[in-house]
Specification:
single chain, alpha/beta, TIM Barrel, nine-stranded mixed sheet, 30% helix, binds pyridoxal-5'-phosphate
Length: 422
């Protein structure tokens, strides 16, 4: 099954010591367990067995080519939210009929690419977008298969306001009260085929009530639109399965599966789900080396070679990530420290007021549960090249994304601008 465990006093990813990877591939680096990703896919797949279903991995959580290929090989499809993600999915070998295309602000260019590729569904978020899709499809001599992303306006328990998306007033989806008329418009438009209702109510959902209430609203609406002539073939329940970052429990997949499969079976349609975090979060660590330990006022700082540029979640979402020494020092007493990065921002931290066993410069730390919304949110701020991504599979490991170089930082600079007159 893989994963991360201490063996012979040192933290391993599957059978590979993290210290070996740090030595060979340098730090900071993201390290992912292929076995854990496959295991989590298989468990979710089994939990959905009561209905015909397809799992569309949400590429936004981690778009690493190595991870996309291993999920595709396991039988997973994909969900994308930009032209860039569509490009990456096709390059990783997903066929258009394995791709859902969503997103609240798709451009004309992106929609044209999705229609021309012939994706399984474009999940549309407004009447204006529906009209645009129909017009673009007509230009291309096509009929685009669409879903309506509905905002079911349910109570979302997600742990952070930035990852709740299905409450009244959020920017995502078509408000539930407007969805029937958007559906009738879709039925009337000549170059779209309305085949699904879709929701994504939030991420890291600590209660499944939002799935229960949201899918119930989609079922009701699907029946209404069927009666009006729509050929509804899918129910898309979105992503949002939570993972434990600290001491929380793993989600009850059987309970989740029972809710979403029952909804799809009521309609007699294929269930689609779009999990991201659930597959990759706990399957990855950010490996970082301690550069300095210092004190300032009453505070003790552990300054690492990774920070907000590599893992934005602590400063952006106040997110908690467990931090573990890769090779703990014998007898080191616990101290309370801020684990911070090298970026010139006071908001650059990995953990605040965290009890860690005493660490020293040169030590390696693993920042856990960093595989989702980690690398994909990294930046070059402070002219820091993006780090490497490493995939471990049993006793084997490989760099699947190369560390950027200084050249990459200036690749798009135009040293001699071609000035034009207005
Ligand atoms: C439309 C859509 N689907 C799926 C997901 C994946 O969510 P999660 O990683 O919580 O499963 C997201 C994440 O924001 C999303 O916006």
């Amino acid at each position: 099954m893989g994963g991360f465990a201490v063996r012979d006093g040192a933290l391993h990813c599957e059978a590979v010591p993290l210290a070996l990877i740090a030595h060979a591939a340098a730090t900071p680096a993201y390290v992912y367990s292929a076995g854990l990703i496959r295991d989590r896919f298989a468990r979710l797949d089994a939990a959905l067995a009561a209905a015909p279903h397809r799992i569309h991995y949400s590429l936004k959580a981690n778009g690493s080519r190595g991870i996309l290929e291993l999920l595709r090989a396991a039988g997973c499809a994909v969900d994308v939210v930009s032209g860039g993600e569509l490009y990456k999915a096709l390059r990783a070998g997903f066929t258009p009929d394995e791709i859902l295309f969503g997103g609240v602000g798709k451009t004309e260019g992106e929609l044209r690419e999705a229609i021309a590729a012939g994706v399984k569904l474009i999940n549309v978020e407004s009447e204006a977008e529906l009209r645009l899709v129909s017009r673009l499809a007509a230009d291309l001599g096509a009929v685009a298969n669409v879903g309506l992303r509905v905002n079911p306006e349910v109570d979302v328990k997600s742990g952070h306001q930035y990852i709740a998306t299905g409450e009244r007033g959020h920017k995502f989806g078509i408000p539930i009260g407007d969805a029937a008329s958007a559906g009738r418009l879709a039925i009337a438009l000549p170059n779209v085929s309305l085949q699904a209702l879709d929701m994504h109510v939030g991420s890291q959902l600590s209660s499944f009530d939002a799935f229960r209430e949201g899918t119930a609203r989609l079922v009701e609406l699907s029946m209404e639109l069927r009666a009006a002539g729509a050929d509804i073939r899918y129910l898309d329940a979105g992503g949002g399965l939570p993972v434990p970052y600290d001491a929380e429990e793993e989600p009850d997949l059987a309970a989740y599966g029972a809710i979403v499969t029952a909804a799809a079976n009521t309609l007699g349609v294929e269930l689609l789900v779009e999990p991201g975090r659930f597959f990759v979060a706990a399957s990855g660590v950010l490996l970082t080396r301690v550069l300095y330990c210092k004190e300032s006022g009453a505070k003790a700082y552990v300054i690492c070679d990774a920070g907000m540029t590599e893992l934005l979640r602590p400063s952006h979402y106040d997110a908690f990530h467990r931090i573990e020494a890769v090779s703990p020092r014998a007898g080191a007493g616990a101290v309370t420290v801020d684990v911070v990065g090298p970026v010139c921002e006071s908001g650059d931290f990995l953990a605040l007021d965290r009890e860690l066993p005493g660490v020293e410069p040169g030590d390696l730390l693993a920042v856990h549960t960093a595989g989702a919304y980690g690398y994909v949110m990294s930046s070059q701020y402070n002219a820091r090249p993006r780090v490497a991504e490493v995939l471990v599979d049993g006793t084997r490991w490989a760099v699947v994304t190369a560390r950027e170089t200084y050249e990459d930082l200036v690749r798009h600079e135009i040293p001699v601008p071609q000035w034009r007159e207005a």
